[in-house]
Write a structure and sequence with these properties.
about 120 residues; 8 strands; mainly beta; three-stranded antiparallel beta sheet; globular
Length: about 120
């Protein structure tokens, strides 16, 4: 198996708020509608037939601007930390390279809207 860090670009994502027995989706995006980059891990196993490919987006505790909707959110890697996320080896690499320190867009750059 080959494990790899990767980045997933997105212009928005949904978080779901539980309201009693129902769930309300909220579209989350930057106010300026710029792309964000999610931290992700992927793997592929070319030795298996059919070839197995998998991708998981890393999540983290929700920032103040999302915590009223959901308790977690995708880990967003700031542009200046993208190379560090991709290149850092080891289990504690994210904290050593600083990728986790700026994994969320600033609240002032984010807007949310019910859908």
């Amino acid at each position: 198996m080959h494990g790899r860090r990767c980045l997933v670009p997105a212009d928005a994502w949904y978080e779901w708020k539980t309201l009693g027995r129902f769930k309300q989706p909220y579209l989350i995006r930057r106010a300026d509608r710029a792309l964000v980059t999610f931290a992700a891990v992927g793997r592929r196993d070319p030795g298996r037939r059919p070839e197995v490919r998998a991708l998981a987006i890393v999540t983290t505790a929700a920032g103040a601007d999302v915590s009223g909707i959901h308790d977690r959110m995708p880990a967003v890697v700031a542009p200046e930390h993208r190379d560090a996320w991709l290149d850092a080896p080891g289990r504690r690499a994210a904290s050593r390279c600083g990728a986790w320190s700026l994994r969320r867009p600033e609240p002032s750059r984010r807007s949310r809207s019910a859908r």
